[in-house]
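Hey, resending since the last one bounced:
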Amino acid sequence: MKLTILGGGGFRVPLVYGALLADRAEGRVTRVVLHDTDDHRLRAVTRVLAEQAAGVPDAPEVTATTALDEALRGADFVFSAIRVGGLEGRADDERIALAEGVLGQETVGAGGIAYGLRTVPVAVDIARRVARLAPGAWVINFTNPAGLVTEAMARHLGDRVIGICDSPVGLGRRVARALGADPKEAFVDYVGLNHLGWVRGLRVAGRDELPRLLADPTLLGSFEEGRLFGADWLRSLGAVPNEYLHYYYFNRETVRAYQEAARTRGAFLRDQQARFYREATDPGVSALSAWDRTRAEREATYMAENRESAGAGEREAEDLSGGYEKVALALMRAVARDERTTLILNVRNRSTLSVLDVDAVVEVPCLVDASGAHPLAADPLPGHAAGLVCSVKAVEREVLAAAESGSRATAVKAFALHPLVDSVTVARRLVEAYTRVHPGLAYLA
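The structure tokens again:
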């Protein structure tokens, strides 16, 4: 079975390959093709993968190419993990937004819109090529903003593109752990959009244990989201939000913390990964050891400004091991081998959330089998959550419309309608600044 990884020179690719090495079942991936536009990054990651595979019998064969069509042709699965504009683009997204006093995070607010406007045209081109060169392939989208990009690709690939994110999985695991439950035995009632969702229940043996958590301040203080949001706010919501909702509920504090930080997250990762790629192509250095050190530092500093502004402390050791590669492998197994499972995924809504249309991509529990991912029925969202979901989905639709039409006015509308952008004037200045800095936005006229 052939797996093509787009963005194959990306830092997290060894996580995926490590999961493949541990998969010994029949029907597993035997060939991995890495595609990237940056040959230097490809060489670095290929070295890491070679060290991972050392001594592993029948390790999947790895090849690398900068030719996109060659990489896609004949693929059974395509993992899309591209970063249009690179980490330099992410750092610019953050810097420009913060200069206007608004959030520049890569998937939330102004930064997410800028990233989406750069990424959607490239993702659409990939979707069209997959449809032509590998019509039987399943596309698993890692690319952020994951929900928006998945919806753009679904217009060309239908249900054969599925978006994944490890954030809901990590949240469900932490809630289960706080309750003393086995995460593998718990059903997480999670619903929303990518990076905009809530755990509304956690059922173990048919019983919802979430009310017990919300009623106990000690339990709420025992895991990251409980400390991040505070017990009183979680009880008011009657749910546990995805960590990214901290940008909405505590926006003023978060923006201030980001403005006061020595470097933005994007600038930190840009500098950190530049160092890693230099080390990993040095023949005298173990590329795998360099990658391990860099990954540990990366995970430990994740959302550090949010935790600092909330006094939430350091991340738990159990949350430093990633997880999106496990979701991806479970999804691929379910489809390729008909190993039925339930996963929280980004898929077309159908009738899951009544406040959205059938084609809106949502993030919800899905039953996955050989025919794909099927969203499970969900209770309606409470009014506050429905309003936020509808507002952000409307912004995503304006981003898609701007990317399709090249309309600068529509791009301004996308920024201005976002709940975290507080002025049409600011929206206009953001579009002006982003188009001036990013070549990938030159299409906006």
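The radius of gyration is 21 Å.

Sorry for the duplicate.
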